Amino acid sequence: MATGRCRFTNARRLVAWARPMSMRLAAAALVVLAVAACSTSSAETQTTATVRAALAAFPEIPQLDSRYYDRFPTTAKAGWSRSTFFPVGTFLSSVRSRAALDHDRALGLNTYYTLTDNSNTALLDGSGFSAVLGAPFGRRVPGLAGSFLGDELDMRGGPGNAPVGPGGVQAVQPCLQSGQKCGYSALAASKKQAGATPGAVQWANYGKGVAYWETDQEAAAFVNGFTDVVSTDVYWYTDPAVCDEAANSRGLPRDQCRRAGNYGALIDRERALDRTDGREQPILAVVETGAPGDGWATIRPEQMAGAVMSSVIHGARGVVYFDHNFGGSCRAEHGLRDCDPAMQTAVRTVDRQLQDMAPALNVPARAMSLGPGIDATVRTADGAVLLIAMIDPTTGPGSRTFHLPSTMRGWRISAPYENRSITRTGADSFTDTFAQESSYHVYRIQP
Predict the structure, then answer these.
(1) Which of 124, 357, 376, 378 could form a disulfide bond with 366, CB atoms 3.0-4.6 angstroms apart?
(2) What does the longest C-alpha to C-alpha distance in the chain come to?
């Protein structure tokens, strides 16, 4: 098969032989379109090759791509293996009306990470939403992508194998009352129960136990023993106890606690734990959108956006929004439906950007040092380099100078989501400003 060339012999013959004149004009138009399409395709191929050559010296960072989900019939059927798909959704939502479904879709959500028992799962049919659900829902739910094994059993059950009842997660309470530790056994029972949905990806969410309470060995046993997809929640911006706990457990300076960068650092910890068994799984980010607890602070929209982007920079393969507001000025089961319009707008903006960047986020990043004080990921898509950047969370806001490889000299730089072009400050450098610790910029660099 010929590559890099376009042949139009048959199309030209069509023009020569077409009768009457109107047919000849139509055929000629088809040739013009074919030539234009071929020229565009050839140019795109050349640009992609140029980008690939420019990055040849920078190794790929190992990362599962979206084809991982082809291993599981449920996620494959739900479309998770598509390069254009990036799972984004809410935790333990209720879906009881099409109006709620439409509102969530307008926010850019595409996944429900568990649903309340009173949800009408029939509404998911043909909706474009996926669902990761607990065993009680069964296997016939439209859009079913996987099984949910439990929430924060590292904290609620602790690192142990004390006996639990056949109910799995539901049987943890007697164990806790007896003072025994049964997190592992509860997850094992839940996993067995989830086996009623064969071929489903299995997901569990952890908390402070995996994040910093437990030893690395204890935490790794949670992360590696039960799941195909994993997440851990620590609400760095809003939890009143987290700064003291992280300082005592992990030595995190208290003045560096309430920062977006800690959401990305949590992804790094999970990945380090996950790789101890030689088997990697996707890691989801968990980010609050309100006040998760009574007496807790309320996260601001720009902080939410920074937390999501920091997680993505560090390799998160999806986002779980915790939008239950048990505190703050607007207490609601669904904060993203009933509270703060500014937060809803921010979530919509972030989700739109994530879906737009999905082809780049679903392939490995490149290892590239861009300069001091910068936390970034470098990826490729559509014949360009995509650079998502924030400040190093151990530093403060201000200007940062990016040093690009000489192989990108002369390439155009833009910030597409801010509708601005970037002017170089040197042959291989440019400078930009990060006004807050949660600020981020997305740059497109192309020949």
Answers:
(1) 378
(2) 91
φ, ψ of residue 439 to 5 degrees: the values are -65, 145
Mean per-residue pLDDT for 252-261? Answer: 97
Tell me 126's DSSP state: T
Residue 9 has pLDDT above 60, yes or no: no
Q: How far apart are CA 379 and CA 391, in angstroms?
A: 18
Whether 129 and 145 have beta carbons less than 8 Å apart is answered as no
CB-neighbour burial class of residue 322 (10 A; exposed 0-12, middle 13-18, buried 19+): buried
> What per-residue confidence (pLDDT) applies to 25?
53
Rounded Cα distance between 12 and 444, Å, is 39
152 contact partners, CB below 8 Å, separation of at least 6: 205, 206, 207, 209, 233
What letter does residue 212 receive in the DSSP assignment?
Answer: I
Give 14's pLDDT tier (boundaries 50, 70, 90).
Answer: very low
Q: Is the pLDDT of residue 296 over 70?
A: yes
Average pLDDT for the chain: 89
Q: What are 114's two structure tokens?
A: 């568990």
CB count in 10 Å sphere of residue 189: 23
Q: What does pTM read for this prediction?
A: 0.90
